[in-house]
Design goal:
It is a single chain. The chain is mainly beta. Helices cover 13% and strands 43% of the residues. It contains 11 helices and 31 strands. It is globular and about 95 Å long. The relative contact order is 0.09.
């Protein structure tokens, strides 16, 4: 063992003995779905914003890991593992044949490789789970050769990574408290980098642009898995290959621990890489420059023409129908200014919708109109007033930085701040108030300890009727056709001090209904004024709750900060999915603060009362990309203790939103995605509600327009 340690120290010396080359090869992901060799970590990182899903299996262990390069130097992951016959902590009762475990990792590259220095990273595995994979590390990686063909890694590990050839803690932190598997979900900071330490390391050689070979020395003895007969560890050496099939997929095969083979598959994508090449949208109208201004000025005689309103409306509606992504809602125009009201039907990047409306105005407005204003409507709400000088548009259309300059010159303000101009009022033509559709749906749950994936596939009918532009009735009915959600278990909650079972009995809704009303609501939206927006709703908001809801939002058009207030009184619905209500009712609500944190990050804090009557707060951070992608995480802490909450200790999860436009190349405001929760219980449960104000309003305000300014002329 001393020879091995000496060899690793020699490897560390090699890391700083030759100048480094720029690393441009993709980073290998290990069997934990993080930057690494086989089982051990490296100091490498993924490209910024890279998202990877890794499946790995060997012996009686299978792991699925979702990793995200949250910052250029920080990688975070969520893992779900299945271990056949595993009994953590020696517990031999109450365990299923397969033990399912959830865990989070974080990996921070403290020093980037360059010059004479290796990359240096520190990391921690299983920081908020049961702790069966708990371990920390400090690791260095160095590339050699003209094309960085060879990389050498050496590190020191703690916890599970500090078992083989262990020596005393180099920081003098020899006491590492034993972690209680318990309910999981907590972070034991008093364990980090404590206890015995051990060396690990390895090399990777790029045989070609696609093929890499790995050889590593593992410091993990897999003690508990060996004790339960999951595998045998005969050697610390792991070896094998990874092969990059294309830019999106990598496969790997390895011989591990002297007696078993393993396989891995990684699927990679990046929100910054387009899902499809190019776009299938119709080209926008070109800006129509006005003729030179005569000495007497542009004529305004058109105002007195009785046919003017009809001509303007017909021209605007024709061009918007040709565009396909916009709906004309009304116009007020005088000799100098036009204020148009529009609904954006298709464009997920709001600056693109603004640019297209401005182009249409340049084609349809008489020459005397020199100022264009556009107000976008969302559920009847006027979201903001965006004003641009027509002359600026004519000059900037073909400028190199014309899109950025156009957005910077735009005035963005509360739509109620400027009184409408006197002049011609042009109403929109007739449009459909009723929209409806029938199609398939899928409803899935994950991480049930008895079955990690359950789902129903069925038929859903949706309808929406606009009584007025601001008063909207909508609903959906679902009929499950095939699936196994009715086999879900009713979650056991602690018998003492626990809140009312608002989510732990979710399984009963699947077991006691065939067809059900998913939602049925009537909502009214209103511009209160002074940057204040309002919503009032009544009906069946979600599968489990119905009632009344009110919301106010203060969100200045040029501010990166907003404040909201929501108050609801709801009743729990009957299990059969009809219109009946149960005895349980609760008043719930939150005060919310919204922050634009810069560098694509947005934060949200909600403080208030949850569905079970518990009091607390939810903290949320999302990285939101210009094309509509959003990846983030949240955690909720209330006066329900970890013991009362049960498995998972507190509500937390990962949120993912993928714009369909990114996948198809066709303009669309529809998105896919959802929330990945390790587990959901009664504490911290919040009412599910469509049409909350913040997401409706902020797209057309300055921060969002600046984020998507590159699409202004598209």
């Amino acid at each position: 063992m001393r020879k091995t340690a000496s060899a690793l120290f020699c490897g560390c010396s090699l890391l700083v003995c030759a100048p480094a080359m720029a690393q441009d090869r993709p980073t290998t992901l290990n069997y934990f779905g993080m930057p690494g060799l086989v089982d051990m970590p490296t100091a490498n990182v993924l490209p910024d914003a890279e998202l990877a899903f890794t499946l790995a299996a060997f012996a009686s262990t299978g792991r699925g890991t979702l990793s995200f390069q949250a910052l250029p130097s920080v990688t975070a992951s969520f893992r779900y593992a299945g271990l056949d016959g595993f009994r953590p902590g020696g517990n031999v009762t109450g365990q299923d044949p397969t033990y399912y475990d959830r865990s989070f990792d974080v990996h921070w590259q403290v020093i980037r490789e360059g010059g004479w220095w290796p990359a240096l990273a520190i990391g921690a595995r299983d920081i908020a789970g049961t702790g069966i994979y708990s371990g920390e590390y400090i690791v260095a990686t160095r590339h050699f050769g003209a094309d960085d063909q060879l990389s050498v890694t050496a590190g020191v590990g703690f916890g599970r990574l500090g078992e083989r050839g262990a020596f005393s803690n180099p920081f003098g932190l020899d006491d590492r408290p034993r972690r209680d598997v318990g309910q999981g979900g907590t972070t034991d900071l008093d364990q980090f980098f404590r206890g015995d330490a051990a060396f690990f390391g390895g090399i990777e050689w790029s045989a070609s642009d696609r093929l890499r070979l790995q050889l590593e020395y593992s410091s993990d003895l897999y003690r508990e898995e060996v004790a339960d007969g999951l595998l045998t560890v005969d050697s610390p050496i792991n070896a094998g290959f990874t092969y990059r099939v294309n830019d999106f997929a990598t496969i790997g095969g390895h011989y591990l621990y002297g007696n078993t083979f393993g396989l891995s598959v990684s699927i990679l994508t990046n929100p910054r890489r387009p899902g499809v090449t190019g776009t299938y949208d119709s080209p926008p109208e070109p800006i129509s420059p006005r003729p030179a201004r005569p000495p007497s000025g542009y004529s305004t005689a058109w105002i007195a023409e009785p046919t003017a309103p009809g001509i303007l409306r017909d021209n605007i509606e024709r061009l918007m129908q040709e565009d396909g992504g916009l709906s004309f809602e009304g116009l007020r125009v005088d000799a100098n200014r036009a204020t148009i009201r529009v609904r954006n039907l298709s464009y997920s990047q709001e600056a693109q919708a603004v640019g297209r409306v401005m182009r249409i105005l340049s084609v349809t407005m008489p020459s005397s109109v020199s100022v264009f204003e556009v107000i976008f409507l969302e559920n009847g709400l006027e979201t903001s007033r965006i004003r641009l000088d027509r002359g600026d548009l004519e000059v900037l259309e073909n400028e190199l930085y014309g899109a950025s300059l156009a957005v910077s010159l735009a005035e963005v303000e509360d739509p109620t701040e400027v009184a409408d101009a006197n002049g011609i009022v042009v109403a929109a033509g007739s449009r459909e108030r009723l929209t409806w559709g029938v199609g398939p749906y899928i409803d899935a749950t994950i991480f049930d300890p008895e079955n990690p994936f359950r789902a129903n596939l069925g038929i859903e009918g949706q309808a929406r009727y606009e009584i007025t532009p601001s008063l909207i009735a909508q609903g959906a009915v679902r009929i499950p056709v095939v699936g196994n959600l009715d086999d879900s278990r009713v979650v056991d909650v602690p018998p003492t001090g626990a809140p009312f079972p608002v989510r732990s009995e979710r399984a009963l809704y699947n077991q006691q209904s065939d067809a059900y009303v998913d939602n049925l609501t009537l909502s009214y939206y209103h511009n209160v004024g002074n940057d204040v927006y309002a919503r009032a709703s009544v009906g069946y908001f979600e599968r489990m709750f119905a009632g009344v809801s009110g919301e106010l939002l203060w969100q200045p058009a040029n501010s990166t900060i907003g404040v909201g207030f929501e108050l609801n009184h709801v009743w729990r619905r009957d299990f059969d999915g009809g219109f009946g209500l149960q005895d349980y009712n609760v008043t719930t609500g939150h005060v919310s603060a919204y922050f634009d944190l810069g560098r694509e990050f947005e934060g949200q804090i909600d403080v208030g009362r949850y569905l079970a009557g518990d009091l607390g707060a939810t903290f949320r951070v999302n990285r939101v990309f210009d094309n509509g992608w959003s990846i983030g995480a949240f955690a909720t802490f209330t006066d329900v203790s970890f013991d009362e909450f049960g498995e998972g200790s507190f509500d937390k999860g990962v949120e993912l939103t993928i714009p369909l436009q990114w996948l198809t190349g066709n303009a669309s405001r529809n998105v896919a995605g959802g929330t990945i929760r390790p587990t959901q219980r009664d504490g911290g449960a919040r009412l599910e509600m469509d049409g909350r104000l913040h997401d409706l309003v902020t797209g057309y305000q300055r921060p969002s327009l600046e984020d998507t300014e590159g699409m202004f002329w598209r």
